[in-house]
Specification:
heterodimer, A: mainly alpha, 9 helices, 86% helix, globular, B: alpha/beta, Rossmann fold, six-stranded mixed sheet, four-stranded antiparallel sheet, binds adenosine-5'-triphosphate, binds magnesium ion
Chain lengths: 266, 256
Amino acid sequence: MQTRMGYDRLLGTVARIGRVTEVTLEHAGSITLLAWQVVLATARMKVAAREVVNQLYIMGIQSLPIVLVTGSLAGIVTSQQGGYQMSSVVPPYILGSLVVETVVLEMGPVLTALVLVGRIGARITAELGTMVVSEQIDAYHSLGRDPVALLAAPRVLAGILALPLLVGIANIVGILAGQLAAEIDSGLGWESFFYGAKLFWHSWDLFYSLTKAMIFGLAIPLISVHMGLRTKGGAEGVGRTTTQAVMFMTLTILILDAVFPPLLLN
Amino acid sequence: MIHYQHVWKSFDQPVLAGVDLEVATGEMFALFGPSGTGKSVLLKTTIGLITPDRGDVSVAGISVHRAGREALEEVRKKVGYVFQNAALFDSQNVFGNVTMGLPEDELRRLSNREVARRVWESLELVNLEPHAVLSKIPAELSGGMRKRVGIARAIVGRPEVLLWDEPTTGLDPVNTAAVERLIKRLSDDLEVTSLLVTHDVEGGLLMCDRVAMLDGGVVRFCGTPDEFHACPDPLVQAFIHREAAEAALSSIAAVS
Ligand SMILES: Nc1ncnc2c1ncn2[C@@H]1O[C@H](COP(=O)(O)OP(=O)(O)OP(=O)(O)O)[C@@H](O)[C@H]1O
Ligand SMILES: [Mg+2]
């Protein structure tokens, strides 16, 4: 009896894993297809430059304030945490290296991406979801227009361009804020901070940071457009899909972030 | 012109269960039916917005669901669609919305002046004051105005076929008359084929060459307005006479 129940439970678990895998693969498949359609629309020059600029403004310029705030906080927190954990054995200028590397490699790209998930990803899903349930997407089709070229492609292109820029800015303010915090906390001066930073710096680090940013900048609009376009069932459906999309994007960012080091940091 | 061949579609429940219907070129055809029987679904299968589970639709001899992407684009170019809820693009003003009704290649060819003239003309045809509405966004319009902008968008590209999903529902009598006159004029003067879904049975019977009744997923009646009047089917009678509808209602109440 006992083993029988255990067996059933095991079967149930296997079935659940199977279902989750199936759903994940299905999403991955249609996201890949969407990406391909965006590439085609772009290559065929069907994407309006004006709409890309418009989206760049929304994603880039309008996100600047929040990116500046998170960037500096990331630098400050890293600097404080690092300063606290440093023992008297290592020279104090090592803190400079610690802050710069942590901000550039991790905190800058990941925090900026997570902020953009909330600010941009959720907005895109809700916007497109509303267009689906109010039949505006159907209307585009009925008029022979391609929603991928009109709506998806400009958002994806703007994401790819905007994220590296924003991450670059977040990195800079993060480093500056981190240096300031180090100065206030432990009196580590400007020169020793950057002496330490330069000691372990590779230009590859910046490339890594911005590549990561670009891939996050591709993932956020792709996932949010994909989720928006499969919205079903009125205002409630839009709410449900938006929440799912935010979860989905957050997880993707974190998973990609874990996949990056073995691929690019060897 | 439009040929529905055994169209089946189920969502959670069966909606269309083998619809066969043919609308001739230049004909004005009205489709009646109780709410929720799938009239909008059937119209959407005509331009591939919904894919039937079984069966096919052809427009001007082109298969909508079997002949691939380019054929579908060809069909969509020929057909104008008036959505039940207008479905205006809410980020664009009225001018932008109606301009979208012009096919892309035509937009490239026409001068700005010519585009503006076409948009202006279509708005006037639906009894809207162009200069008063052109720069308004949909949220600033009344329901009836939105509906008419939706019609203007569907006709501005001068399609050969027009699918009207309840174009007069929610309009005042004057604008109803204006839209009805427009439908009639398009069909009389320009030989446009019109398939009209409407709850205004009286209007439909007066205007149209033939009418059909959709119920239970199939075409329950199809014929001329005279044949419709003479049809003994209780549902048909309920659609013609108020008293018959009352009787149908009480028999439904008695059953449940
Ligand atoms: N995209 C969809 N997904 C799921 N169910 C749908 C969808 N579209 C329509 N339905 C269902 O199909 C049925 C027919 O809907 P449809 O909108 O065609 O009715 P209708 O005849 O146009 O009614 P009305 O006169 O009220 O407009 C309804 O039960 C509806 O719930
Ligand atoms: Mg309907």
